Amino acid sequence: MTENNFYSGAGVNRAGPLRPDADWVRGRVTSSDARILPIWREKNLIAFADGSQGEPRMAWITAEDAAALADDNPNIILLGEREGTSFFAIDLSHLENPATVPALSHGMFVGLRDVGGMLDRADGALLAYAKGLIHWHERHPFCSRCGSRSDIKDAGHVRVCANPDCKTSHFPRTDPAVIMLVHMGDRCVLAHNRRNPQKMFSTLAGFVEPGESLEEAVAREVEEEVGIRVGSVRYHSSQPWPFPGNIMLGFHTEAISTDIVVQESELVEARWFEKEKILNAAKYGLQLSRPESISRRLIDDWMHDRV
Ligand SMILES: [Zn+2]
Predict the structure, then answer these.
(1) How close is the Cα of 114 to the center of ligand 1, in Å?
(2) Which class in CATH covers the domain with range 16-139?
């Protein structure tokens, strides 16, 4: 392992113990150097060095602008502090056309996946954190136990049911998914997933189900998707994946059978690939997973015997 996976390593102190202190949070959000990261309909505010061309970088607004742009129920959520600066996130999805708002004119809302790999790594992680947390709030306005409205507490890290007979606390969740490179000797299995419009070959992946270990989830998903049985399962690393709310848990796993039977509802195609073919992917017109993805990291580390 040489470095963190992309979308991790935001380098912020999340200030967990201070979140319940409303006075402290108010002091931080109104401080002159607070940076508020806006989210609009699942997109992040990004500035470009040269109009819409140049290098993308994280953009933010001031607390004053955030207060002016917020709707009746503003959700300014504390992300944490980095080098003395407080970072927050706000959902501006109620705006009809943010491109016409002067306070947002230094950037534009774009999908994080469209620019992710080109961002500064720590900023990319912060934007992913903001996106994931705002997504959770947007999808959980009501209590899942009694159906009443829920209110934000602890600077946005808890929602509490407003029904006095319920008062259930709900915490932001991230759903675990396993992602694994299946290998045998000098070959590995890569697949073209139906959800990917491009003919891109990546590792297999799937959600962890209740009542199974991560190792069991790896073995089950591999067998379901390509009909291969696996032996050893070795943990590699993890990656926050806010598309929309997952943590990817990466593994290398050794195949003990070779015949592929593709699960057609999930995959267009799955094949064994020799190392030589992956090494010369461009020559063969083989498109691999995106460089910032843990899928690519699993492939690259296996290629270089880092398993
Ligand atoms: Zn409730």
Answers:
(1) 38
(2) alpha beta
* CA 158 to centroid of ligand 1, rounded, Å: 13
20 CA distance to ligand 1 middle (Å): 20
CATH number of 175-303: 3.90.79.10
Q: In the structure encoding, which two tokens stand for residue 307, read together?
A: 């398993």
Q: What is the pLDDT along the chain (307 residues), one digit of tens a residue?
A: 457 899 999 999 999 999 999 999 999 998 888 999 999 999 999 999 877 678 999 999 999 999 899 887 667 899 999 999 999 999 999 999 999 999 999 999 999 999 989 999 999 999 999 999 999 999 999 999 999 999 999 999 999 999 999 999 999 999 999 999 999 999 999 999 999 888 899 999 999 999 999 999 999 999 999 999 999 999 999 999 999 999 999 999 999 999 999 999 999 999 999 999 999 999 999 999 999 999 999 999 999 987 7
- Give the E-state strand segments of 4-67 in sequence order: 35-40, 43-48, 56-58
CA of 165 to the centre of ligand 1 (A): 8
Rounded distance from Cα 140 to ligand 1 centre (Å) = 12
Q: How far apart are CA 123 and CA 242, in angstroms?
A: 14
